[in-house]
Design brief:
Blueprint lengths: L11 H21 L7 H12 L5 H8 L3 H13 L3 E6 L2 E9 L1 H21 L7 H14 L17
Antiparallel strand pairs: 1-2
Length: 160
């Protein structure tokens, strides 16, 4: 009598795959943001500040998972390079807004174009129809994360 072999699902496959893709993405992105204070973090701050929905410095730090002290030093470096400016938040004078300067907008556009090329190379194994589908699916997963990781810029009553 032959015993039936029960297949054990490989639950590590998703983790390995995500890790491989993330490492490749981060390695390539790092090369594209070396000229930016804070590298990828600096790019993320510029991107959020450009988005228009969230300018409060503390809220941007929360959104990006940055310690407030790290955020302060990062914004200091971006200010020194004339990429952003700080202004008192009209909704809360104790808080500071982070706003892009014209130089910040230009550099963000340049770096965004370089990162788009990285993403195109990373997604090259997918065909033209699969790429937007993949982006949509990964976005849905990200938006479905637990409430404690929620985007503070889109939460009701947010400080943005």
């Amino acid at each position: 009598m032959v015993e039936a072999v029960q297949e054990v699902p490989d639950t590590g496959e998703l983790g390995r795959s995500l890790g491989t893709v993330l490492r490749a993405y981060l390695r390539s992105v790092h090369e594209q943001v070396d000229d930016l204070p804070g590298g990828p973090r600096g790019f993320q701050v510029l991107s959020v500040a450009a988005g228009g929905a969230c300018h409060n410095q503390a809220t941007i730090a929360q959104l990006l998972g940055l310690d407030r002290t790290v955020m302060t030093y990062l914004v200091d470096d971006l200010v020194k390079r004339d990429l952003v400016e700080r202004r008192p938040d009209p909704a809360d004078r104790r808080a500071r807004q982070v706003l892009l300067t014209e130089a910040g907008r230009r550099l963000l556009a340049e770096v965004s174009a370089r990162i788009a090329e990285v993403e195109d190379q990373l997604l090259a194994p997918l065909d033209d129809a699969e790429r937007p589908l993949f982006r949509d699916m990964i976005g849905r997963i990200a938006r479905a994360r637990p409430a404690d990781d929620a985007d503070p810029c889109t939460e009701p009553g947010s400080a943005c």
